[in-house]
Amino acid sequence: MPLTLVPLHPLFAAQATGVDLARPLSTAEIAAIDTAMDRYAVLVFRGQPPGQPPGQPLGQPLGQPPGQPLGQPLGQTEQVAFARQFGPLDLGLKRLKKQPDRLAHEELMDISNVEADGRPAARDSRKVVSNIANQLWHSDSSFQDPPGKYSMLSAVVLPDSGGETEFADLRAAHDALEPALLREVATLSAEHDALHSRMLLGDNNYTPEQRAMLPAVSWPIVQTHPAGRKLLFIGVHASRIVGMSMAEGRMLLADLLEHATQPRFVYRHHWRVGDLVMWDNRSTLHRGRRYDLSQPRELRRTTTVERQPALVAA
User: Fold this and answer.
1) For the chain, how far is it from start to end, CA to CA, in angstroms?
2) Total tally of structural domains belonging to the chain
3) Is residue 158 part of a domain?
4) Closest Cα partner for 145 from 98, 209, 186, 192?
5) Who contacts 228 (Cβ-Cβ below 8 Å, separation ≥6)?
6) Most buried residue, 109, 127, 204, 217, by CB count within 10 Å?
């Protein structure tokens, strides 16, 4: 059956059915997903089997109640194979890590608070602190060139409550920006630093060699997506504005982030085991929400990078 889309928010995000993510996709299916991503920027796939009717949506605009559970998690190998069909896979901050990985594939990011035995890690462990940084508004791998394109996050184990993921539409945020401020930022660039968010939360234990592995990159704040819409490319990885004092630049970035993450621009996803959510890092910011760290929460992420320049200055 063809890809079917049910909008989940007035501005963006849709629930997608009709595609079996566990098997190789046809050229037409890949093109249909790409087209849907250009329009909605966030797609929610329920667990297999894929032919289930849309039913009650699994996520709603900010503040709405959750839907009902359905489905099984996509396997690790299947998730990596699915992601590869949309571009080269990104290792992100994994390039800084030397410890063994508990997942089967290097390209899978362990978005969890658990150790190899499945038990929750200590609340003050470096792993937990690093994953708490995901609760800050960000775009995956905006700190590198090329930046992240699509991310796919699969829910495996969930806490009793909390741990939702929120998405903000950077295209709608651009369109709603006050004209005078839009003119001001249209020619500005922000420097994105991989470790800025970790250092904000007190994780400063990085060697000069590690920092050199991921040097900061600068991106124009106002950019144009390949599909044609302009957007604000910001987030917590943006540590300063080129040509401004640190204080002035960070306050302007804070104002832009506050604007872009207003409730009217935000879709909150209430996770169910088996969900796979796919989003465009060029068009959106996202963040995880707080949950009880004494309960396990396991999600697995894959992220692609653009084969060619992902964005262009407006």
Assistant:
1) 38
2) 1
3) yes
4) 192
5) none
6) 109
CA distance 284 to 43: 12
Q: String of b and e for 272-285 (b: at least 16 CB within 10 Å)?
A: bbbbbbbbbbbbbb
Distance CA 221, CA 233 (A): 5
Q: Write down the H helix ranges in 43-125.
A: 76-84
Q: Using one digit for the tens of pLDDT, what is the confidence trace for 110-154? A: 999 999 888 999 998 888 888 888 999 999 999 999 899 999 999
Residue pair 87/304 in contact by the 8 Å Cβ criterion: yes
Give the domain CATH number at 270. 3.60.130.10
Task: Say how far apart CA 204 and CA 222 lie, in whole Å.
Answer: 30
Tokens of 8: 């989940």
Region 183-210: mean pLDDT is 84
- Residue 33: domain span: 4-170+260-313
Asked if the structure places residue 247 within a domain, the reply is: no
Element (H, E) at 192: strand 189-192
Residues 6+ apart with CB under 8 A from 259: 173, 176, 177
Contacts for 87 with CB less than 8 Å, ≥ 6 apart: 149, 150, 304, 305, 306, 307
Residue 38's Cβ-count burial label (10 Å; 0-12, 13-18, 19+) is middle
Amino acid letter, 190: A
Query: Considering the domain boundaries, does residue 202 fall inside one?
Result: no
- Tell me the C-alpha distance between 25 and 30, whole Å: 6
Give the pLDDT band of residue 204 (cuts 50, 70, 90).
confident
pLDDT beyond 80 at 202:
no
What per-residue confidence (pLDDT) applies to 104? 85
Q: Going by C-beta distance under 8 Å and a sequence separation of 6 or more, which residues neighbour residue 233?
A: 139, 142, 170, 190, 219, 220, 221, 222, 223, 282, 311
Instruction: Write down the pTM of the prediction.
Output: 0.90
